[in-house]
Design a protein that fits this description.
The protein is mostly helical. It has helices at 9-18, 25-39, 44-51, 60-80, 98-118, 129-141, 153-177. It has a single domain (9-177), classed as YgfB uncharacterised protein family PF03695 (Four Helix Bundle (Hemerythrin (Met), subunit A), Up-down Bundle). The N and C termini lie far apart (35 Å).
């Protein structure tokens, strides 16, 4: 089986824009991760209805958008199941201003929360305490705002720490909600 290609944030953002998608690259990736954490699978009908409002099968831009998200879904599934925790959030690169990266992180978190809900995780769902706390933190991060482009090294470091916290939190949520079904041990 061929390994899925790491998505290019800018390219995906452009493709989704041409397809008039309801979300950008970061939010779509967050949505897919949330769906995977909630249900353990990515059903095209679920994510399609969350991302694309146009259903015209003859629309070339829409076809390209769907194909790009299918590729992103394959990469996301592989990354979320990577035994060495290689999954990373699809966000703008370091060369972009911090306010843009912060906005994308907030959108990623919004998408993740939407994916959890679309996958069946509701507020009243009984969840492990650590998962509930992480979801609460991700909800707060989804409201993040950084309005200046005069970022210093401390701001950059804080941003990377928050990204890493979200990344590891998502992997923990996935592990808690979708534990590996190991074969029983022989004694």
């Amino acid at each position: 089986m061929q390994e899925a290609r790491h998505p290019d944030y800018v390219e995906l953002e452009q493709i989704l824009g041409r397809a008039e998608a309801a979300a950008g690259a970061a939010e779509v990736h967050g949505l897919l991760c949330g769906l995977l954490c909630a249900s353990g699978r990515l059903e095209e009908g679920v994510w399609t209805s969350q991302i694309f409002t146009d259903t015209d099968t003859g629309n070339v831009s829409l076809q390209q958008g769907r194909a790009a998200v299918q590729s992103l879904a394959a990469w996301t599934h592989e990354a979320m199941n990577d035994p060495v925790l290689g999954m990373d959030l699809l966000l703008p690169t370091e060369g972009q201003p911090l306010f843009e990266r912060t906005a994308a992180l907030a959108e990623w978190c919004q998408g993740f929360l939407l994916g959890l809900a679309a996958g069946g995780v509701q507020q009243e769902t009984q969840l492990p305490e650590d998962v509930t706390e992480l979801i609460r933190d991700i909800t707060e991060i989804s409201r993040a705002d950084f309005e200046t482009d005069d970022a210093d090294d401390d701001d950059e470091q804080a941003f990377y720490e928050v990204v890493e916290y979200v990344r590891m939190g998502v992997l923990l949520i996935n592990d808690e909600l979708q534990p590996l079904k190991a074969p029983p041990r022989l004694q």
